[in-house]
Amino acid sequence: MLKSSADKSQKKQFTISMIRISEAFKIIKRETFSVGSEKVDLGKSVGRVLAEDIVADSDLPPFERSQMDGFAVRAEDTRNAPVKLKIIGESVAGKGFDAAVESGEAVRIMTGARLPKGANAVQKVELTSEKAVPPVPPFQPGTGVTDAKSNITILEPVVKGKFIVTKGFEVKQGETIFSKGEIITANMIASLAAFGYFEVKVSRQPSVAILPTGSEIVDVRETPGKDQIRNSNSIMLKALCEKTRCRAELLPIADDNLQALKTVISKAAGLAHPAGSTKSKIRNPKSEILIITGGVSVGKYDFTKAALREVGAEIFFEQVRLKPGKPTVFAKLGDTLIFGLPGNPVSASVTFYLFVRKAILEMQKALDTDLKQGYAILASQVKAAKERDTYLPAKLETDDRARLIATPLNWHGSSDFIGFARSEALIVVPTNKSFDKGEVVEIAYL
Fold first, then answer.
1. Would the pTM of this model clear 0.90, i.e. be above it?
2. Domain that holds residue 109
């Protein structure tokens, strides 16, 4: 049967209403704003976004130092090794030998210790042979001449500069170590401490409120009754927020009631009542981001979009060419960014990773706000949805040829949070595309 022109028009309007994921990213970037900065203790800075460049306040190392336990010598004295040299002192970490090394002399030196003046090489202790007659008492670090009969035999020649780390070899004073916008990792802490950053300037963490909706939802502490389910989305989203380093607050569950939803949205945005317009400017919102789960589709009891419109929020998009997560909403009310995420837990998780996480990091001026991308070989066939890019949960492993293998998880749609629970990445399948086992696909790491 032929479709009527009205049907065709309606289909066209539906298609146009869905925007591409790349366009959604651009809109989110455009609408986000900086949340400012603060100083935090270095020990509590892991995961935070740098709000300043980290600059070396000194050369590193600050002096020439030894890479080995051995003897600091003049390289020219060892050309005809084996050669016997007089030991005149010792240099240890924290207390170097201050006198100069002359021809025919050597200084015992430990790893990391300052190279004495006059020395230009270090021979490791394994290539030396030490004799002392009579036995030499222990050296006092930093002292000068010891028993004149104490000597060391250098068994092999050593070239100038051998086993020495020169001053400033690792970092020069004034050099930028880490840049503003980088996310601090545990591996960066030692470097920050080495240059005196006992406090570090970081972006402030955005405040996020999470609003679950649905008359069928009950608290996780309750036993669900007939036709009810526990509120798993809110706990999951709070954990994802904290993983992205922002402050998350769980709001009480909102029933499928338009007036109640308007009131909660308004309070989260800092309005005294559920009225207003996009022209009204809210300077100090209670929450900088509001995440609403559920009620974003087109069902009879899906009130989220209607509530947003009635309180005066500006809706930027409400459908994305994405599976799972097509009915994702992004809006703004005053200075509060609002995300309406699908109620199905897998959809909520995927759309958080793609969109909400990006907004949180954009607000903190992070250099990289997208999920880390990569490539892997498929363990089984995958196929995208019609007219939508598809993000499929997968596990990752390497095979005996050191290839990264992506195995699609056995899950049964956007409500299957059990199947999604062990996902380590998302396989990205572009609209209308399919890939066979063994083909290379793009992945996004979770």
1. no
2. 65-165
DSSP β-bridge partners for residue 320: 19
Residue linked to tokens 């005294």: 272
Long-range contacts of 247-253 (CB under 8 A, 24+ apart): 247/205, 247/206, 247/207, 247/208, 248/208, 248/209, 248/210, 249/207, 249/208, 249/209, 249/210, 249/287, 250/210, 251/209, 251/210, 251/211, 251/212, 253/212, 253/213, 253/214, 253/217, 253/218, 253/219
Q: Please write the tens of the pLDDT for every residue from 30-56.
A: 999 999 999 999 999 999 999 999 999
Any idea what the CATH number is for the domain that residue 384 is in?
2.40.340.10
Interatomic CA distance for residues 383 and 431, integer angstroms: 9
pLDDT at residue 3 is higher than 50: no
Candidate from 161-170, 200-209, 405-414 with smallest mean pLDDT:
405-414
Do 379 and 308 fall into the same domain?
no
One domain for residues 143 and 79? yes
Return the structure tokens found at 227. 């036709």
In this structure, what are the phi and psi dihedrals at residue 55, rounded to the nearest 5 degrees? -120, 135
Structure confidence at residue 354 as a pLDDT band (50, 70, 90): very high
Closest of 272, 273, 358, 266 to residue 313, by C-alpha: 266
